[in-house]
Amino acid sequence: MPGSGNNIQNIRETKKFVFQVFDENIDFIEPMASEQKNALINRLLYNHRIDIAQEKKKTELRNLVKKIAITVIAILIGVPLLITLVNLSFDATFKGYSQMQSNFEIFFKD
């Protein structure tokens, strides 16, 4: 974990913040030394950032799975529908050509 330890070399740029602590935590944090409080707060912040990153990855994975599922369903429905439409189009075209040929044969009978 970055920033852990009491070594001065580990300290980067620091900034002071004022936090309000809930009543149930006062007895826990009050007897701690300043370094312990700093380490605790920094460890909590680090862990919270990790939790947020993991939750973001989970959300991205869920969204990816949803997109894949929608794509698969669209393909499973769309491809047969497209094949059916092409088949109907060919049938209509061939029927039209047959009708046209029959009409020409009747019209141009010798």
Mind explaining what this structure looks like?
- Helices cover 74% and strands 0% of the residues.
- The protein is an all-alpha fold.
- It has one domain (8-107).
- The radius of gyration is 36 Å and the shape is rod-shaped.
- The N and C termini lie far apart (97 Å).
- The model has no long low-confidence stretch (mean pLDDT 88).
Low-confidence stretches: none
Mean pLDDT: 88
Order of helices and strands: HH
Can you tell me the number of structural domains?
1
Question: What kind of sheet is the major sheet?
Answer: none
Please tally the β strands and state the result.
0
Task: Write down the overall geometry.
Answer: rod-shaped
List keywords for this structure.
110 residues, mainly alpha, 2 helices, 0% strand, rod-shaped
Summarize the structure.
The protein has 110 residues and is mostly helical. Helix content is 74%, strand content 0%.
Describe how the helices and strands are arranged:
Elements: H1 23-29, H2 34-107
